[in-house]
């Protein structure tokens, strides 16, 4: 017990020293260039992640495969990013920032080249995994550099700017990918971003400073293996649900494996002196509530960015460029709403924001469900804009509110949990939407592709509506109370 108490005190003293020390820092040009380069590399990674959603009908034809198979182009990418982010804390303490940046840039380049020259789906999937590792290394490092090398009084501004730049990537992704597919070839999606990512990597690596010495520590391989197995098994269960149904042996076995692996990870993490993620943070009820809602609305948002472009192309006959562009309006509006929501949270608290946001989410998803047979490109654009306004009112405010509930020494684990669940919610959301589209095809086996896609999309709309009703209920539990972490301090 004394050993654990001493470790806690040491970490607490280190946190206090760190925050006092950051006040003495000056924002030098080298610091700005390092943050800029790392942010640009992360931006490129997220851009190629979301730009591929509008290419699926084209990839289905070129690779002669099904939608359920092609969706792994996005699903496994997000899954690999999430798995990498789980160990971000360990990686940043064990290796230098320059090494992490060079690794991230190399993975982005190697994976991008493999995807650009891929002649079949397996080669592309391998390239996507490699590229995802680069994104999973770069994105957490952006905010780690800001927290370690920017004075505390300016960290909010820099975090907001970096977050806004990275958030632009999923907004631009579908339009970028759709435009390229419309006029040239999907391979240019990777070719164009390659030099940008490489230059960004070199700028960051040349200018990054190492604020703390690296520490040799033991990697909890058993915990990482268990969480990785759990994430993969749950994704496979969602994928099998669409191809074989809920009564299939594959679905049941994958679900059981996922549950057992998650249970094993929690048990090992609780007992470990050096856990890769302290699951005890979820004992904080308001943190657990905030991150649950955060996960659910991200699930819906990424699920829609997969479902809507494919619905527009396969059912409405829209081009890939139009299918991507119809999501752009809502994304741009939400980019302006998000910082406004942050300022409103500071003045009026989170309660009203999440309640208004959740109502908008239910209105949008229910409208999609009821009007599925009458949807047009214009109507999809309008309803998705309403959805993203509600999403923007909640997303970053839930992250801020959740982290405010934690003690200072728990911040790293809280950030890791948010980053991992953000990416994994996209992976599982894409897998489930693809499964529902496949279910729609099974429900109408003799119908044409347009009708099969409509059937599957309706299932997807109703499913997301049900999720948002749950969000609405949970949002009414959140109060604008004084953060528990602040009360403890």
From TrEMBL:
<feature type="transmembrane region" description="Helical">
    <location>
        <begin position="72"/>
        <end position="91"/>
    </location>
</feature>
<feature type="transmembrane region" description="Helical">
    <location>
        <begin position="247"/>
        <end position="266"/>
    </location>
</feature>
<keyword id="KW-1133">Transmembrane helix</keyword>
<feature type="transmembrane region" description="Helical">
    <location>
        <begin position="320"/>
        <end position="341"/>
    </location>
</feature>
<keyword id="KW-1003">Cell membrane</keyword>
<feature type="transmembrane region" description="Helical">
    <location>
        <begin position="378"/>
        <end position="403"/>
    </location>
</feature>
<dbReference type="Pfam" id="PF07690">
    <property type="entry name" value="MFS_1"/>
</dbReference>
<keyword id="KW-0472">Membrane</keyword>
<feature type="transmembrane region" description="Helical">
    <location>
        <begin position="32"/>
        <end position="52"/>
    </location>
</feature>
<feature type="transmembrane region" description="Helical">
    <location>
        <begin position="125"/>
        <end position="146"/>
    </location>
</feature>
<feature type="transmembrane region" description="Helical">
    <location>
        <begin position="353"/>
        <end position="372"/>
    </location>
</feature>
<feature type="transmembrane region" description="Helical">
    <location>
        <begin position="286"/>
        <end position="308"/>
    </location>
</feature>
<dbReference type="InterPro" id="IPR036259">
    <property type="entry name" value="MFS_trans_sf"/>
</dbReference>
<feature type="transmembrane region" description="Helical">
    <location>
        <begin position="221"/>
        <end position="241"/>
    </location>
</feature>
<protein>
    <submittedName>
        <fullName>Transport protein</fullName>
    </submittedName>
</protein>
<dbReference type="InterPro" id="IPR011701">
    <property type="entry name" value="MFS"/>
</dbReference>
<keyword id="KW-0813">Transport</keyword>
<feature type="transmembrane region" description="Helical">
    <location>
        <begin position="188"/>
        <end position="209"/>
    </location>
</feature>
<comment type="similarity">
    <text>Belongs to the major facilitator superfamily. EmrB family.</text>
</comment>
<dbReference type="GO" id="GO:0005886">
    <property type="term" value="C:plasma membrane"/>
</dbReference>
<keyword id="KW-0812">Transmembrane</keyword>
<dbReference type="InterPro" id="IPR020846">
    <property type="entry name" value="MFS_dom"/>
</dbReference>
<feature type="transmembrane region" description="Helical">
    <location>
        <begin position="100"/>
        <end position="119"/>
    </location>
</feature>
<feature type="transmembrane region" description="Helical">
    <location>
        <begin position="459"/>
        <end position="478"/>
    </location>
</feature>
<dbReference type="InterPro" id="IPR004638">
    <property type="entry name" value="EmrB-like"/>
</dbReference>
<feature type="transmembrane region" description="Helical">
    <location>
        <begin position="424"/>
        <end position="444"/>
    </location>
</feature>
<feature type="transmembrane region" description="Helical">
    <location>
        <begin position="158"/>
        <end position="176"/>
    </location>
</feature>
<dbReference type="GO" id="GO:0022857">
    <property type="term" value="F:transmembrane transporter activity"/>
</dbReference>
<feature type="domain" description="Major facilitator superfamily (MFS) profile">
    <location>
        <begin position="30"/>
        <end position="483"/>
    </location>
</feature>
